[in-house]
Amino acid sequence: MGPFELPDFYLPYPARLNPHVESARAHTKEWAREMGMLDDPEIWEERRFDGMDYGLLCAYTHPECDAAELDLVTDWYVWVFYFDDHFLETFKRTRDVVGGQAYLDRLDLFMTDDPPEPVNAVERGLKDLWARTVPGMSRLWRERFTRTNHELMQESMWELFHIEDGQVSNPIEYIEERRKVGGAPWSACLVEHAVGVEVPERVVGSRPIRVLTETFADAVHLRNDLFSYQREVEEEGELSNCVLVVERFLGCDTQKAAEITNDLLTSRLHVFEHTTFTELPVLFAEYALPPHEQEAVLRYARGLQDWQSGGHEWHMRSNRYMNGGGRTGFHVSPRHVMGPGGLRNHTHVPHRKVGHLPLPEIFMPFQARENPHLDEARRATLDYAEAMGFYTMVWDRDSHDGYDLALCAAGIDPDASLEELVLATDWLSWGTYGDDYLPVVFGRSRDFVGAKAFNRRLSEFMPLDLVVTAVAANPVERGLADLWLRTAGPMSPEGRAEFRAGVEAMTASWVWELANHIQNRVPDPVDYVEMRRKTFGSDMTMALARLAPGRTIPSEVWGSRPMTAMVAAANDYCCMLNDLFSYQKEIEYEGELHNMVLVVQTFFDCDLPRAAELVGSLVTARMRQFQKVAEFDLPALLDDMDADARLRASVADYVAELGDWMAAILRWHRECRRYDEATLKGARWVPGPTGLGTAGTRIGTLLGRTAS
């Protein structure tokens, strides 16, 4: 008997079967034998290989490609599953961390034009496949495919580390890391190859394409976690499975955890559909994509859809997983339509009277510090805002004074000079004002086109040559032009470009929020967390962190798994912290949809106290993860790099700054008047959605340092 009954899967599209399935089965079995994948019965033997039926998997997931392409794709899937099982037997079961890393590092050499001689079946298969796959594809596609291959292989160490220390991830960490180790982004690259298109270069990094790929990845992995729970958790001792993550985080039984995992799977599929039908048309118009490029994007989306449907059918038939009692074919139940991700997300009634939200206990291991220039910065930022015209619309001086953004900046950078602190405070004021301005000016009129045009114009006030020729037409543009010249001057041209891209990512996310308001759509939990970081200014402040004078952290550390995990944990901590404090302001007074408490309420269909409790648990989990990475993972990375004292000191300084930042944010929320009910009732202007918790606080993390 299995550990749980398979849940009610959302199957909106029936699977189709490629007519070349039998030839693919025969070809790939012979190929696997030739590569040596059937030589070790402890890993694979012929009967088990036949039962797993990878020819059927690829015939279902790629129903339209020709026989030669199906053979190639099937060989890739045989290779990736063999790699996973070979790594399990050779390194996971033996807990050989050092040997596992050396093995993975060597595999990168087989994704080059001059690979070494292979010494095992995994290397032999990768060398053969690489030579058969990359000819005919563009350089950019090769780079993406190389990166996803590398991440897929290297993130096997993430699973091994969790087994080694007996740790189960928190839900946010799990979803992000699972995308890499699960290999679905790798599968998405192969979808392009199989359907004979490449996503146009100029839109490959856009939000709609990113969301299509990521929702595809999440749905593939969550489905696999449901089918593979018994094999991975009960038989292999694996800890990287969403059902187990939910079990541990919520303290519920396995059946309930499986149902919640399936709800998240359903929600992610709805996001895929929503993006296809509402965001792709806007993307096509915005970039003026010609018909053949539109067709390439749509064929890619269709290929991802086919993979979802076919992958489910294969899971129901393969002997690799538990699969008794589940549905196949087309199946859409009322819960799938009305539940998480469906119509439930469009039924929120704005401006409900919710009253003050009793806060859960908030874990904070750091102490906020003081800056001696606080009072001077308070006065200076009020004068800056008045000069920029902030008090002519949306804000007045009294409300701005009550927000006390200088207190926030002073705690974020307690050692800043007066000039640095004033600059950081002014950025906080601008970001907060801009985020309040857009929904007031464009949200009430539902002017999505106007908001897009407004956002596009902002780039004109951040010229790389520091010569602003555009004429500011509103306080947001005027304030940005002023801050850009005060901030970007000391930067290199490359640094200015990176910084500007970060600002653009933040302001573009404001338009995403407006689109959700127009549709009255409460975001999906995963989409919300990831977009919340952008509304929070994370891309911009990461650029500032890298560009801070005297900082000696190389790109391989900034881009490493520990560093990105630590920064994401810190961002999420403060984003959700703000959502707790701002709940009444946003839900009752602003009619907001973008608040983690509301997102959790909507997903779980639970009451407010339970939603606040769950968000509080996530806040604590993210802080615990920050501490673990800072205390163990980052030092281990630096040890592996044989880092010198200067690099270690620079990393330690950055970790300390993040601690200052989180402590300052908590203190500011407790002491400012932005969220007081008395302030909200007496406000002259109705603040726009999300407020400081988005653009404001994160901007100042290191920004003041650029002034010198």
Largest sheet: none
> What oligomeric state do these chains adopt?
single chain
Residue-averaged pLDDT:
90
Contiguous runs where pLDDT drops below 50 for at least 5 residues: 685-708
Which structural class should the secondary elements be placed in? mainly alpha
CA(first)-CA(last) distance: 67 Å
Question: Total helix count?
Answer: 32
Shape: globular
The tally of strands reads 0
| Beta-strand content bin | under 5%
Determine Rg (CA atoms, Å): 26 Å
The level of helicity is 55-70%
Family: Belongs to the terpene synthase family.
Keywords: Lyase, Magnesium, Metal-binding
Protein name: Terpene synthase
EC number: 4.2.3.-
Summarize, please.
The protein has about 700 residues and is an all-alpha fold.
What does this structure look like?
The chain contains 32 helices and no strands. It has helices spanning 21-35, 46-52, 54-61, 67-92, 97-107, 121-133, 139-154, 156-165, 171-182, 184-195, 207-235, 242-250, 254-286, 291-315, 334-338, 374-388, 397-403, 405-412, 418-443, 448-458, 475-488, 493-518, 525-535, 538-547, 555-558, 561-581, 583-589, 596-604, 608-640, 645-671, 677-681, 692-699. The model is unreliable at 685-708 (pLDDT under 50). Helix 9 crosses helix 11 (207-235) and helix 28 (596-604) packs across helix 29 (608-640). It is 67% helix and 0% strand. The protein has 708 residues and is mainly α. Belongs to the terpene synthase family. This is Terpene synthase. InterPro entries: Isoprenoid_synthase_dom_sf (IPR008949), Terpene_cyclase-like_2 (IPR034686). It comes from Nonomuraea roseola. Its EC number is 4.2.3.-.
